[in-house]
Every structure is written in structure tokens, then in C-alpha cells.
Amino acid sequence: MEFETKYITDDIKLTHFEGKPFKTEVIFEHHILVWFISGETKIIQAEETHTFNAGDIFLIPRNQLATVINYPKDGKPHKTVAMHLTKERLEAFYSRHKATGKMQPLQKVYHFSNHLLLESCMASLIPYFDLGPDLPPDIAVIKIEEAISILRSINKNVDGLLANFEDPGKINLTTFMERHYMLNMTMERFGYHTGRSVSTFRRDFKKAFNTTPQKWLTGKRLELAHYHIAEKQRRPVDVYVEAGFENLSHFSYAFKNRFGYSPQSLSDK
């Protein structure tokens, strides 16, 4: 078995993965609360990279673009319990509970370390995954609302995230691209996430950067990779995926073509 997913409902799942690490670019449609049982995940966003291991619990905001790389680790599978906190579920919750604090989207990943109450809530879901249709349908609703209540008790500012129901519209292209250039997406996806058609995205991009998207993206990704290898003493094999390249050979070719020497020769200095 390489990959298996079990569901309590569409909003609560248990994933079990064995095999080679896999990477994907995603935008999270819903807030996601994740409990790590084993393995490792890197979440690469514009300003920082988060690494999560066994025992970690974290909350990822919705409408956030990220590169996600999942790894089995220490001879154990990549195994997590994930709970989607959907807009509909949160609207129902906050119709009965007064939100506190400023209602604004918070652009960060929340990390909860060794919190017994939250871990107990997530761990209590494990027996339910094998019950299937025998599980009472309202159990999932109860467990999600329990998790929301615990999150609010842990962090008084989390309402600013969970109780904000606005959807993003057309956004500043320059700011978006400077933050997300390492994400390996199609022009259609870049256009979608900036609120533009492909043709409008290309036109606005040319106006903002005076070059084509592909040339600019390749240059920015190579500069990022060069920085990590030269300044952070990281190996090319550990850098190219995070910088937005699909394979090592293409990265090495583009790197040498740009800088006049291979990434390996830079790493060996």
C-alpha cells in the first residue's frame, strides 16, 4: 500500500502514505487543522517554510498558496488526521457564538505544540475511521465544534481568522508575484489566483515587469536557489524543488546557463 485515505465525513480524513516524497502546489479552500502522527511535511510559503513532524498540530488558513512536500520518515509512513473548517461550518458556529478581536485575515500558519486538550480532540477521532455508516452523522459536527472551541481557548486572536468570511478578489499582481514566484503553477493558475483571465494576467504582467512571466519566474527561482546554495550552504538536491523546479537536471542546466557554473560546483566551494 502506498496511499490510503479514510473519511469520517468529507471534512475529516485520515491519510496514510508510504513511498517517495511527493510535492504539490495548492491553495487551501478551507482552513485545515492537521495532527501529525508520523512522517514530515514542509509547507513553503512566500515568507517562510514550515516543517512539521510527529506530534505537531497546525492550522493552515484558507485561500493561502503553498508548496507542500510530504515525506515518510524514520521508517514510518506519512500519517495525519486533517479536519477541514469550512466556511459554512464556521458561519453556523459564529451565528451562535460572539467573535472577539479584530475581524481580519491572518496570513500565517498557527502551530500548536504539545497542547494536550487539542491533541486529545484529534486523537479521539482515530476509532471513528473504521465505523463507516455505523457512525452517527452528528458526531463529526460535534468534534469539529469541539476543535473550534479549543482553538479559541488557546489563542484569543484566532477569531480574526475563523470568523472572517470575505472572499479574495482581484489583487495587486506585483505584490502577489514577488511573494509566490517559487510556486510551480501554470499561467492559468497564476491568473486565477490574482483574479484575472490568462490574457489579462499576461498583459498586466508585461506592464508591471517589462518581460514575460516565464523569463521572470525562471530568473527569480534561480536567484533564490543561488542564495540558498551560496549563503545557506544547502545542497542543490535539497534546494531545487523549493525554488520551483520540477527536476534536478533541468534546474542544473538553467543554473549553469544563467551563472556560468553548475550548482554543484558552487556547493563544493
Structure notes:
By secondary structure, this protein is of the alpha+beta class. It has two domains: 160 residues, Jelly Rolls, CATH 2.60.120.810; 95 residues, Homeodomain-like (Arc Repressor Mutant, subunit A, Orthogonal Bundle). It is 38% helix and 22% strand. A hairpin with a 2-residue loop joins strand 1 and strand 2. Helix 6 crosses helix 7 and helix 8 crosses helix 10. The longest helix has 18 residues. The termini are far apart. The model has no long low-confidence stretch (mean pLDDT 88).
Helical fraction: 25-40%
First CA to last CA: what distance?
A: 42 Å
Q: What number of domains? A: 2
CATH structural class of the largest domain? Mainly Beta
Order of helices and strands: EEEEEEEEEHEHHHHHHHHHH
> What fold name stands as the CATH topology of the largest domain?
Jelly Rolls
Organism: Taibaiella lutea
Keywords: DNA-binding, Transcription, Transcription regulation
GO molecular function, one term: DNA-binding transcription factor activity
Pfam family, one: HTH_18
